Amino acid sequence: MIRSLSLAGLLAAAAALPALAQDKVVHIYNWSDYIAEDTIRKFEAETGIKVVYDVYDSNETLEAKLLAGHSGYDVVVPTSNFLQRQIAAGVYQPLDKSKLPNLENMDPELMKAAAAYDPDNTYGVIYMWGTNGIGYNVAKVAERLGEDAPTDSWSLIFDPKYAEKLADCGITLLDSASEVFPSALTYLGLDPLSKKPEDLEKAAGVIEAIRPYIRYYHSSQYISDLANGEVCVSLGYSGDVFQAAARAEEAGKGVEIAYSVPEEGAQQWFDMMAIPVDAPNPEAALAWINFIMKPEITADITNYVWYANANTASLPLVDPEIRDDPAIFPGPDVLAKLYPAQVYDARTDRLITKLWTRAKTGQ
Amino acid sequence: MSAVIERVAPLRWTAALLAALGLRGRTLVIAVPMLWLLIFFLVPFLVVAKLSVSEPAIAMPPYLPLVERDGARMTISLSFENFGYLFDDPLYIKAYFFSIRLAFFSAVLTLLIGYPIAYYIARSSEARRSVLLMLVILPFWTSFLLRVYAWQGFLRSNGVINNFLLWTGIIDQPLVMLQTNFAVYLGIVYTYLPFMILPLYANLVKLDEALLEASADLGGRPLPTFFHVTLPLSMPGIIAGFMLVFVPAIGEFVIPELLGGPDTLMIGRVLWNEFFSNRDWPTASAVAIAMLIALVIPIMILRTAQQRVEEE
Amino acid sequence: MNTPVPVATSKPWITGAEPPFIRISKVTKRFGDFYAVDDVSLDIYKGELFCLLGGSGCGKSTLLRMLAGFETPTEGRIEIDGQDMAGKAPYERPTNMMFQSYALFPHMTVEKNVAYGLYRDGMKKAEAMEKVAEMLRLVQLTPFASRKPHQLSGGQRQRVALARSLVKRPKLLLLDEPLGALDKKLREETQFELIKIQESLGVTFIVVTHDQEEAMTLASRIGVMNAGQIVQVGEPPEIYEHPNSRFVADFIGSVNMFEGRVTEDEPDYIRLGVADLGGSIYVGHGVSCVLDQQLWYAVRPEKIRISRTRPDKTENVFRAVVDEIAYMGNISIHRLKLPTGRLLSATKANLTRHDDEAITWGDEVWVTWDDTAGAVLTR
Ligand SMILES: Nc1ncnc2c1ncn2[C@@H]1O[C@H](COP(=O)(O)OP(=O)(O)OP(=O)(O)O)[C@@H](O)[C@H]1O
Ligand SMILES: [Mg+2]
């Protein structure tokens, strides 16, 4: 087809290309393993907009790209606390809600919770949400700690007495201070949202004390490592642990992975769809966000990635196995114990990073 | 004769033109690499240097501009606080020394492994030499990242090595090798080995066989011959190889990140943390600049050593 | 030191009074299917200065390297001082070698180069330094002791190499073209020095050279090599005056070579018919040959006399025209053209500084030589 184009035609096509591309391409930047297999295909079929889909595995990576500017992405999915800071930095454009009729499907309670980071939900819509808890290899933990292992408590990880026994089969933490510190504070019975340096120092003490027993600090590696038995306890994101569990089951090697929301409390987070100010194609971005909010599409994603969504209309379409799992869609008793992700000011941020590096390296 | 002149004429014209511009052939020859350095080294360096004296901010990009215009007033604000941090917190200094130590021992290990290989290749027949050199360079044909990931597969507790050792019954518990400093050494030595072998080979292949014969003739057994003749004469190759391994290993990020454990405190990782976790680009830049300046010291030591050796 | 006394005056190779110091028997060295050294047998005696002489690529270095232990013979046996050298590494042999390329250690000073061999034998520094100093004095390099090889001239380097190979007082010193890189004057000086050193230290030398004049000057005996084989061994005058083949006659000095057939074969003389001369050569001694056998006759230029008048004899007298004269200072070389067109060279000593009667270009002359002046060669 191209071969038969005349030179004039070619020039005309080249001139038309940018406009065409703007109409027809949307660049999505999302977490790895965080979408159903056919979502993109369905979107392309319905809208005729081509999707370029990239993935990241940490908020930090996403943030570096966004702060540098001209990332070229139309839709990104930061976690709520990162979203809040990035809004302050002027990274996002307000959503044109007239283009998002499917907003009516969303759970008003959860949207209100998300508004704590993004007043009036001006910039973001919840993609999925979840908790930070403990993923563990049922058999290996039982083998080392017996039947009454405290699998529903942070002490499984943060109490050196247990950590020491688990070290040889592998404990991992997320490589993110803002996820680990609140958990450590919770374990100590302190306010998970505390910004007091003395509290943070104490939390750092806890983290440092178990340093010798930690295999590594990483935010996605543990998914496959839990699944194939390489590690046995991970402080991780709920959905990621479920994915590990599903993979372990598929592999059929007898590895059983479970997830628990510790009874001391756990962090609740929202991954938010948002549009960068310099998005090349905001219209297509809005189309994408609206498409995701379709009940059947969101249900597909939840069924695939095992994360809770905030889309009330989708719930009837979600597998009962997932919908009724209190670890994924927690009941009111658990919900009451969840706390939001903290946003730290620059000074606290620096203090935490410093404490974090020191605790990690033992220096 | 005239044909020759005619053919040369355009050349002379160009030369004259360049001379008119104040450029002579020699200047021009130097100009190309200079331009290269300017564009790909000096400019990025200046960008980073500028960043390192900026003030961090929640903004996009996350720092304040150096120059601010307020009507007719223009203020330039340089913040050296970022460098202050580097000394406030022993972390940076520790990371620096840790990196140097690790790079140093990696380079020593690489040398110990690379030397016999280079020696063997240099002493092989010409036909075999080119095959062996090919083998040394072969790993470069696959992605570096892929190869480091492959090591993960080897080293993990249910990886190839452990499975083999468990199978043979040498061990009954898998050895923890991944996420240790051992794995980092292994990764660096493995990755940088060709950079050690190639300059050593280039040096050893020039070694005059007659000198080895002379030594043997004068009663030098193989080992003394090696230490008194081969080794000192290959010093330029050793230093070149050492520098090619040591210097980039100091700033290595990928290998400690993928193979190292939490206590592998490399300066590259600290930099990564500053940049990504703290989103403190100015401090990250300050670390980079400080590292560059600090790197100059070991490089200078090696350079002078090399010059001294070469003069001899 | 008093005047050098030749050690090898007794000529054991003639008397057989003592066993050979080096015994090379049936040694062959093949590289692939190329014979670099081909079935060489050679005895060399203690205190000799033996010269290996031959053209480039004839196997001299290879033979020497087998003695030093750098190459192993494909076949045959080498004995030094009664010991079989098979399987002995270079560092286990009582030999030292001075390399064709000198092979000085570029990273060591002159002093360290010379001391190298002593240190390898575990000698203490003080003692080694004493020996080195003595050696440097001998080769007149004392002022250069702390220089590196690249700071020396070619001749100085050569002397360092010599000192280094001598300092250990080896039983056998092997020198591969030791003087190849030197100018004529320095070369002659050093030749003389070599002899002096050799005689004062009593070391056995084997010197490789392809310079026949050098061999003549230095050697107690000469072994002439060609294509991997030793073609003749003998004292310098023997090699010069009694070559055993056309190759040796040709290789050593210059020669006029004639091909002829035996026309008379008597017990006390033979006569050769030589087409090139348009006549015959009378040889004043018996030769074991048969009538009509093809033979060669070699006569050296200095044996040929030229005169304006016909010499007072009948044999070996020929007419010629002076074609060219090359003045060499001490002698002049005349190129003479015989009526057959054959050229002949003859030298004439320049006995006076000026000679009005001198033979000159275009002169018609007579040439002649004694009937014992030439060598009859069968191969
Ligand atoms: N290692 C080798 N492999 C193959 N051929 C060789 C080797 N060493 C020597 N030769 C061959 O053997 C022959 C004799 O070599 P050698 O070095 O002994 O000659 P030479 O008499 O010393 O000559 P020159 O006077 O030029 O030094 C040469 O034809 C050479 O090419
Ligand atoms: Mg030779």
From TrEMBL, chain A:
- Assigned protein family: Belongs to the bacterial solute-binding protein PotD/PotF family.
Name the coiled-coil region(s). none
Specify the domain of life of the species encoding this protein: Bacteria
According to its UniProt entry, what is the function of this protein? Required for the activity of the bacterial periplasmic transport system of putrescine.
One molecular function GO term is: polyamine binding
The record's InterPro entries line, in alphabetical order, gives: SBP (IPR006059), Sperm_putr-bd (IPR001188)
Keywords, in A-Z order: Periplasm, Signal, Transport
Which subcellular locations apply to this protein? Periplasm
What's one GO BP annotation on this UniProt entry? Answer: polyamine transport
Q: Which SUPFAM superfamilies match?
A: Periplasmic binding protein-like II
Q: Would I find rRNA-binding among this entry's keywords?
A: no
Species source reads Amaricoccus solimangrovi
Look up keyword Transport and say if it applies.
yes
* Name of the protein in question: Putrescine-binding periplasmic protein
Leader peptide range in chain numbering: 1-21
The record's GO CC annotations read: periplasmic space
UniProtKB/TrEMBL annotation, chain B:
**Where is the protein found, in the record's own terms?**
Cell membrane
Predominant location: membrane
Pfam families, per this entry? BPD_transp_1
Chain ranges of the ABC transmembrane type-1 domain: 96-302
Q: Which UniProt keywords apply?
A: Cell membrane, Membrane, Transmembrane, Transmembrane helix, Transport
**One BP term from GO:** transmembrane transport
Q: Any stretches that span the bilayer, and where are they?
A: 28-47, 95-119, 131-150, 182-205, 226-250, 281-302
What InterPro entries does this protein map onto?
A: MetI-like, MetI-like_sf
Topologically, how does it sit relative to the membrane?
A: Multi-pass membrane protein
Q: Which GO terms describe its cellular component?
A: plasma membrane
What family is reported?
Answer: Belongs to the binding-protein-dependent transport system permease family. CysTW subfamily.
Name of protein: ABC transporter permease subunit
Q: Which organism is it from?
A: Amaricoccus solimangrovi
Taxonomic lineage per UniProt? Bacteria, Pseudomonadati, Pseudomonadota, Alphaproteobacteria, Rhodobacterales
TrEMBL record, chain C:
Q: Does the keyword Membrane apply?
A: yes
Q: How does it assemble?
A: The complex is composed of two ATP-binding proteins (PotA), two transmembrane proteins (PotB and PotC) and a solute-binding protein (PotD).
- EC main class here is translocase
**What protein name is recorded for this chain?**
Spermidine/putrescine import ATP-binding protein PotA
Q: What is its EC number?
A: 7.6.2.11
Question: What reaction gets catalysed by this protein?
Answer: ATP + H2O + polyamine-[polyamine-binding protein]Side 1 = ADP + phosphate + polyamineSide 2 + [polyamine-binding protein]Side 1
Q: Which gene encodes it?
A: potA
PANTHER family from the UniProt entry: PUTRESCINE TRANSPORT ATP-BINDING PROTEIN POTG, SPERMIDINE/PUTRESCINE IMPORT ATP-BINDING PROTEIN POTA
| Lineage per the UniProt record | Bacteria, Pseudomonadati, Pseudomonadota, Alphaproteobacteria, Rhodobacterales
Domain (ABC transporter): residue spans on this chain = 22-252
Listed InterPro entries: AAA+_ATPase, ABC_SmlMolc_Importer, ABC_transporter-like_ATP-bd, ABC_transporter-like_CS, Mo/tungstate-bd_C_term_dom, P-loop_NTPase, PotA-like, Transp-assoc_OB_typ2
